[in-house]
């Protein structure tokens, strides 16, 4: 499933040069973005970056100050929220406390004037979908947080919207339940064949669930890509930092040939990079970004290493599935390197304050503009 790679795929949701101002404040700045049908799309960014505003404009709670939003080719301007084929689920799911689960789910359908037998059938389907058949007669306060969340979900898809918008949908759940629910949401989206747009500030959540992620900052989109691309090929320093752990080496491009870049760090250390990309221009001030798991730590300089820097083990954290090393390089920079414990047992038994080498392959990181 990768409609964004298909030049003939029809865009489903289109933000075209959308700006939203609140007084003098620009919450969304000339933003363009395309989402495809049946995509699970995540808007990821820090608090205040404008992601909720974007969602609210799609739902019709706010109108853009400039630009337009199209859904399946139709300009949504002026269409009230209840006439858009879009439903929104909020973090505070606001179930009606005095109503049973089934009545909560049926509420919107009754309002729409759906016939009673159809409502019953739909509610039964929805209860089954979220695996709450036995809880139909309970009231929200008789449910766990995770169950309440599923009622809210059932209620928001009961009317069969084409697009479901989820604003921090799992924010109220604890970590374990949140992780389980992420997979449930993915299954549900597949089963219903809907387009999901989820807003989150949690990068792991976005990475787990989404087909593609838009990373936002100050009302603008910094990068739109699959989770793997965002992680492996971040387009900027901001994105590299925002998603996952990363080491950054500031330096200057000392030599640039066809597909090899040689970088000189502030203390003279040399790094060789293959396929440096657009930022790798002769004499450019750049940062070299490399993920911790791409770095190997060893007590001896590996014979075959193209890039090897020497330092001292500063910290070791055992995390169960992996071990994280902090190595202080001789120029003072602290490097984070991680190794899966399943493979680490074959490496040296490094310990605190040992001399150590960090090494990495020339294709292990990316060159980014400073
Ligand atoms: P969070 O994760 O904290 O919800 P967000 O990225 O979703 O953040 P938005 O809710 O979209 O951010 O808000 C973006 C900016 O616009 C914020 O600085 C916010 O204060 C401002 N803003 C949002 N709604 C309004 C409003 N109705 N009036 C004035 N400013 C607003």
TrEMBL record:
Superkingdom of source: Bacteria
Functional description taken from the UniProt entry: Part of the ABC transporter complex PotABCD involved in spermidine/putrescine import. Responsible for energy coupling to the transport system.
Enzyme Commission code(s) on record: 7.6.2.11
Domain called ABC transporter: residue spans: 13-243
Record organism: Mesorhizobium opportunistum
Catalytic activity from the UniProt record: ATP + H2O + polyamine-[polyamine-binding protein]Side 1 = ADP + phosphate + polyamineSide 2 + [polyamine-binding protein]Side 1
SUPFAM superfamilies: MOP-like, P-loop containing nucleoside triphosphate hydrolases
Protein name stated in the entry: Spermidine/putrescine import ATP-binding protein PotA
Entry's family note: Belongs to the ABC transporter superfamily. Spermidine/putrescine importer (TC 3.A.1.11.1) family.
Keyword Heme: no
MF GO annotations: ATP binding
């Amino acid at each position: 499933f990768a409609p964004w790679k298909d030049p003939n795929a029809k865009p489903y949701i289109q933000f075209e040069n959308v700006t939203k101002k609140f007084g003098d404040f620009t919450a969304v700045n000339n933003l363009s973005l395309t989402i495809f049908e049946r995509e699970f799309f995540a808007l990821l960014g820090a608090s205040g970056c404008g992601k909720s505003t974007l969602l609210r404009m799609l739902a019709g709670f706010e109108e853009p100050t400039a630009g337009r939003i199209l859904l399946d080719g139709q300009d949504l301007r002026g269409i009230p929220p209840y006439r858009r084929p879009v439903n929104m689920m909020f973090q505070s799911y606001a179930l009606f406390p005095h109503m049973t689960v089934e009545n909560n789910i049926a509420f919107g359908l009754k309002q729409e004037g759906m016939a009673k037998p159809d409502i019953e059938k739909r509610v039964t389907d929805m209860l089954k979908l979220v695996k709450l058949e036995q809880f139909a007669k309970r009231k929200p306060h008789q449910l766990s947080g995770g169950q309440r969340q599923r009622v809210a979900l059932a209620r928001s898809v009961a009317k069969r919207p084409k697009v479901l918008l989820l604003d921090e949908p799992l924010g109220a759940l604890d970590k374990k339940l949140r992780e389980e629910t992420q997979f449930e949401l993915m299954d549900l989206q597949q089963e219903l064949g809907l387009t999901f747009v989820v807003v989150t500030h949690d990068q792991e959540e976005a990475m787990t669930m989404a087909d593609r992620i838009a990373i936002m900052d100050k009302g603008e989109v910094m990068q739109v890509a699959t989770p793997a691309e965002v992680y492996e090929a971040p387009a900027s320093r901001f994105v590299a930092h925002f998603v996952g752990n990363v080491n950054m080496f500031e330096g200057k491009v000392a030599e640039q040939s066809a597909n090899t870049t040689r970088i000189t760090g502030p203390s003279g250390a040399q790094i060789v990079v293959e396929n440096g990309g657009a930022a790798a221009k002769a004499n450019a001030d750049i940062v070299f970004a490399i993920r911790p798991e791409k770095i190997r730590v060893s007590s001896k300089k590996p014979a075959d290493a193209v890039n090897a820097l020497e330092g001292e083990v500063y910290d070791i954290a055992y995390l169960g599935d992996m071990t994280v090393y902090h190595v202080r390089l001789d120029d003072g920079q602290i490097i984070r390197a991680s190794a899966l414990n399943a493979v680490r047992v074959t490496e040296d038994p490094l310990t605190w304050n040992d001399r150590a080498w960090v090494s990495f392959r020339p294709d292990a990181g990316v060159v980014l503009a400073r």
